[in-house]
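Supplementary Methods S3. Complex input for the magnesium ion-bound model.
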Amino acid sequence: MLKVDSIQKTYRSRRNSVRVLKDVSLKVLPGEVVALLGRNGSGKTTTIRTICGLVLPDAGTVSINGFKLGQTEYMAQMGALIDTNRGLYPRLTPFENLRYTCIVRGIPGKVATDRAKYLLDLLGLWEKRGVPTQTLSKGMVSKMAFALAVAHDPPFVLLDEPTLGLDIDAAEVLEEQILEMAKSSKGILLTTHQMEVAARLSTRVAILADGVIAVDKPKKELLERFTVQSYRITFTEPVELSDLPPNSVLDESRTVLEVTLDHSDQIYELMDRLRPRPIKSIEKQEVDLAEIFRAYSPRKELQHAKAN
Ligand SMILES: Nc1ncnc2c1ncn2[C@@H]1O[C@H](COP(=O)(O)OP(=O)(O)OP(=O)(O)O)[C@@H](O)[C@H]1O
Ligand SMILES: [Mg+2]
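Predicted complex, serialized as structure tokens:
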């Protein structure tokens, strides 16, 4: 298990100090994909950098599988993608970069070669295996950064905005890999601003706001909690509805009715009421993660606007 326990962090400089993490605790279990969500500047990267030992917290502890940050065994337990240029040698080829990284992380030569080849092939970088890494496109560099993070096949992987800047095919390959890793019991902590990515990949969602974890729950539970009994009923032709059902809106074309019910049973009553008008489709409206995100991380008023 990856465990972040009550970490606190204030960045201090001579001029000012920014209190970013007030009290952040998190857990990632094997097989879980935890999406750490939060607005720009909420402290997601700081949290991940703290787990990697790149930021020293003012208080709190981090451990993976019982090893504390600072113990030699700790680093072997995880791989991280933070800054896409990190750990890549621009003059070495993708193959050399990957093989070298594997060897530094203790993988024997032959296995390192195979692993490097496997990852290059998997991520569609095989053709670029022999060119200097500095000549790769931005998206290719992102793929390399992902490959480096998982090079030594660690049990826990931290991914800070892994699909940023990737084309749809590359993003899909990466998403598949993340799901595969979770299936084979790896624990994954990822950040993203793409709510659909979080929705597709995560098993748990944690939202960071104002320096604390505002909510940390299984994705399914969150979605269920926010689901209202909301339906969209489309008619094949414009309809007349003299008394609209409560909590409902008929659109201008008079062909789409949106209704929110208190209980799903009320759908039968509603159907009786709508009979015999010709119904084309009935869809249940789904809540999405963006709505949930907004509920837990309310938008800040503009400081500027407030002053005026
Ligand atoms: N090295 C640093 N020195 C001073 N302040 C920093 C440093 N790193 C980050 N900060 C500040 O800490 C806050 C949190 O930054 P962080 O990068 O952790 O946010 P984030 O949630 O990853 O944001 P984003 O979604 O934009 O990536 C910001 O106000 C940022 O300016
Ligand atoms: Mg960040």
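The pocket of magnesium ion (ligand 2) is lined by residues 44-45, 160 (CB under 6 Å). Residues 228-289 form a domain with the Alpha-Beta Plaits fold (CATH 3.30.70).
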